[in-house]
Every structure is written in C-alpha cells, then in structure tokens.
Amino acid sequence: MELRHLRCFIAVAEELHFARAAERLHIEQSPLSRTIKELEEELGVRLFVRTTRNTRLTVAGKLFLEHVQRVFIALEQARESVKAAANGFYGQLRVALSDGITPSRLSLLLALCRQEEPEVEIRLFEIPLAQQIRGLHDDLYDIGFGKSDEVGEGLIASAVWSDPLMVAVPERHPLLAYTRIPLDEVLRYPLVLCDPQVCEGHTRQIDRVLRRSNLDPLIAERVSSFDLMMALISAGFALGLVTEPYMTISRESGVVVRPLEGRSPMLTTYLLRREDETSEVISRFISRVQTIEFPKRLRPGVSAVSQMEKDVN
What we know:
There is one protein chain. The chain has helices at about 5-15, 20-25, 30-45, 60-85, 105-115, 130-135, 185, 200-210, 225-235, 245-250, 280-290, 305-310, and strands at about 50, 55, 90-95, 120-125, 145, 155-170, 190-195, 220-225, 240-245, 255-260, 265-275. It starts with a helix and ends with a helix. The strands form two sheets. Strands 3, 4, 5, 6, 7, 8, 9, 10 and 11 form a nine-stranded mixed β-sheet that branches. The chain is about 45% helix and about 20% strand. The chain is globular, with a radius of gyration of 23 Å. The longest helix has 28 residues, at about 60-85. α5 (about 105-115) links the parallel β3 (about 90-95) and β4. Keywords: DNA-binding, Transcription, Transcription regulation. Belongs to the LysR transcriptional regulatory family.
C-alpha cells in the first residue's frame, strides 16, 4: 500500500464520483479505478458501492476513511514540525478547538504564549468535539478546548471559563418588555440554535437549560456559525441563546440581549488533555489559560453594537 493509493481513496471518498475525483487528482479515470481496485484487493474488502447512478462508501470504506484522514494529519504535522525546526522553533503545541472559543480570550492566550515562549509553535485545529476526543487519544493533538466534560476514560476535562447564557432578541420584539425573560416565555417563540454536529458540547449544555421548562422548544434553524445566528436574529427570524462574551464582539445591528429570569445559567468551557500527559510545555500553557480574564461584560438590554460604540467613546 502506497500513499498514492490513499490519496486516490480520499479523493473518491470525498467526491463520491470517480470522474470528479480523477479531475481533482489530474489523472485519467481509468488509472484511478485501477488504483482503487488494487487497494480493495490488498485490504480484502470493498470500499465503494458503484452503480450507474452514484458511488457511495461501504461501512468498511467509512471506517477506513477515518483512519486514512488521521494518517494524512500526522504526515502534515510531521512536515510542519520539520519546517518549524528549520525556522528556529524548538517545540510544537497542537491545540484543538471545538464548540467555539471566545475570540477575545483566544487572541489574549495566543499573544501571551508568543510573548512568554516564542520558540514554541502553536498550531490550531478547529474540529468537532468527537474528532477532538479521538485525536487526543491518538496523539494527533496535545490539548483542546470544548464545552463538555463527557470525554471518557484516559482524558481529563478541567473547567476553565464559565459565561452567562443570554437571550438574543430582535429589536422591537415583545419580549423586550421583560428586564429578565422567563424561560417559558422564550420557548413560545422560534429559536435558532447551534448545529449539534458542529457544536456538540455547546448543544448539550443548551439542551440541559431548555429541559428546565415543561415546554418543548420550537427550533426554526440549526446553524454552524455565530455570525449566521446573529444575522437570523437581527432579521427577526427567531430568538437565540448565546454566551455573554460573544455578544461583546458582535457587529450585527438590531440584536438586543436580555438575561434569563432567575439565576443566569452558565455555559462552561473545558480544557481537555490526556491523563498521562507530563509535558512541561503543556503545563505552562495550562497556567497561561488560567490567567486569562473574562472579557468586559455586556449590560443586559443593550444592543451589542451600541455597547461597543459607548465603550469606544
């Protein structure tokens, strides 16, 4: 088995179309088909089901794809490590990011790392939580951030930041009559929430908050980005549930935030690492994480843009 077999397999697995995969690889379709056949013969399994109408992965093919992707990630990391060493870096820290991490905190953390340990190269990987957990076990990442402490055996999840959960409401919405909005009132309106495939840990924490009410949420849309969520809320499409620090950086006009009635629910960000990790570089990184302060709080009931303009003035 050679790397060319794996590259051809990934191209077909991602395109699910032999002609497009061949075009992507800049080869003819016939040698591509032969390469896939050679790979299947060596493995002793069928990787694809190919008909006149479509091409799809078999169960074995899907499993093989996960392993092959990890092979190429490891190769890329090896390549980058060699380049970093040639450019004067003498260490590397691979940090996985899942469920979103407050941009202001991330920039502060990276700046602090660069100031205190410039010889250590930090590489960031924005991936789903499940992939991060597998990658930590497989030594593809050294440390990670996510919004779940359900990480299984062999990993440690330490709470590092907790942020108040707020209701994001379109301007001139009836709920703005409340200073603090009851959860039951929120659930009478459509919601736009994060896609659980992208923000698994975030979704788990939001779901726990929603279960405090006997009402079922009306989910109008699932989105994979905070910016799209804000755009939909600003357009009056739905309400949203967001953490306070994200609202301090939002530039979307027409969105007002209110706290929930009662004690504000907190969404927690966890730092994930292997139990047996003894790296001093990682220990120093964790110490820096613990020094990062909370971003400036947003006053409830004020639009994010208005708050920022007042802060500047």
